[in-house]
Amino acid sequence: MPPAAATNLGYEPPDGGWGWAVVFAAFISIGFSYAFPKSLTIYFKEIQEYFSVSYSEIAWLSSVMLASMYAGGPVSSMLVNRYGSRPVVMVGGLLVCTGMVLASLGTTIIHLYLCVGVIGGFGLAFNLQPALTIIGTYFQVKRPLANGLAMTGSPVVLSTLAPLNQFLFDSFGWRGSFLVLGSIVLNCCVAGALMRPVNKRAEFQPSNGSPTSRRKVSVEAAAVDFRSQSANPPTKDDTNKSKCQSFVSRYIDVSLFTHRGFLIYLIGNVLMFFGFFAPVVFLAPYAKHLGTDEYSAALLLSIFALVDMFIRPVTGFLGNSKWIRPRIQYFFSFAVSYNGVCHLLCPLASGYGGLVVYAVFFGLGFGMLSALLFEVLMDLVGTHRFSSAVGLVTIIECGPVLLGPPISGALVDMFGDYKYMYYACGVFVLVPGIFFFIMHYYNYKKLDEEHRQSMVVEMRISEEAVELKLNQNEKTDNER
């Protein structure tokens, strides 16, 4: 485990107390962020008939909303770094509410793209990143468990919104339902109010030296710094460049693109997200294609959600154990590879019973991956840089999130069968899983080498300091 990610906080996180209220708030905020776009599909058929648009045009509504949620990541990260999580989440709830209210007055499908997709998607981005970030400020030892519990909000909220949306649809139609949903999503403002900033009690490391020696070291360091600046005076261009870099780094840490662990995570995730959402989206249509009735096809999603809901906190508990926590990246690599194998074996499932077995195993894999998805990023880059890291990751991932399901749908149209789509998704997910295993082995090996080198340097400095002290003592004795 990278030492910086675990210890360089500057204060001692409470690992409990009000932190559990923050986990509950993140549970609500993350739940709405991931479940809301999926739950709106219940209204697609009526909206499609009302505006006389094709299925592909109405299907873009959820894709635009998810892509906007991911694209808004850097903006959300900058606001979190500047103002903290609480106000950003509350503004996000208001944005989603505004988008849904305006969408209820929509007259064209483009109107819905802008209101639900863009405004609502950006609101969800303001809910997601701050909720993920604040958990890292409250938890260190129990952080995987806290992240696993918070990520459980997605299947729980989805299983709640699905029947609620059906009731609203039957009672008020899509326009009235959008108004009611706009008021329901204001619960994110309540969740944001619970996200009280952590009380950062700084803990300074004691020094073995006397105040005089510490003052002497400071003076010597300042003198060395002064001499180096005098030898290399900054030019006007360097000054302007430094100001620009400091302005950018104040809000988002672009130096992450030189961070080895971050690049490994980013490269693997970009490829993985091409096949991440499509198997869930096409599970029920695949069952209907095999001759299953609509009720039984919908039951597959319920089985999937139930297993997903159960495995996420269990994954957090396992990830927090002393056996897995030090090498949690291998656990994540296993979860990614496991999902890929499930998709590759899905076409071999025969009949409805085979699809039920697939839904159970897929729910296990999807829940494990989702529970670890942001925990491993925090483990790689540390809590201080996590907000910027998740913002950069999400804006780059919005491309695969937007294009993944349409590409998978094109494979179905091309071959007239869903099995080739599942094969493609399996490859898209399994290859990054293997990539993660190899590269994290390399990363852990390099981290161990760097740790040993730093220990050698520290020992050498200590020995030189002791030798210098002895020489000074001998010189003092001789002068006497």
Automatic annotation (TrEMBL):
Q: Matching SUPFAM superfamilies, A to Z?
A: MFS general substrate transporter
Pfam families per the UniProt record, alphabetical: MFS_1
Instruction: Indicate how the chain sits in the lipid bilayer.
Output: Multi-pass membrane protein
Q: Can you say where in the cell this protein is located?
A: Cell membrane
Residue span, Major facilitator superfamily (MFS) profile domain: 19-444
InterPro entries reported in the protein's UniProt record = MCT, MFS, MFS_dom, MFS_trans_sf, Proton-linked_MCT
UniProt entry keywords in alphabetical sequence: Cell membrane, Membrane, Symport, Transmembrane, Transmembrane helix, Transport
Q: What is its main location?
A: membrane
User: Which PROSITE patterns does the record cross-reference, listed alphabetically?
Assistant: MFS (PS50850)
User: Which residue ranges run through the membrane?
Assistant: 18-37, 58-80, 100-124, 176-195, 262-283, 295-318, 330-350, 356-377, 389-408, 420-442
> Which family does this protein fall into?
Belongs to the major facilitator superfamily. Monocarboxylate porter (TC 2.A.1.13) family.
Q: Which PANTHER family match?
A: MAJOR FACILITATOR SUPERFAMILY (MFS) PROFILE DOMAIN-CONTAINING PROTEIN, MONOCARBOXYLATE TRANSPORTER
- The name on file for this protein is Major facilitator superfamily (MFS) profile domain-containing protein
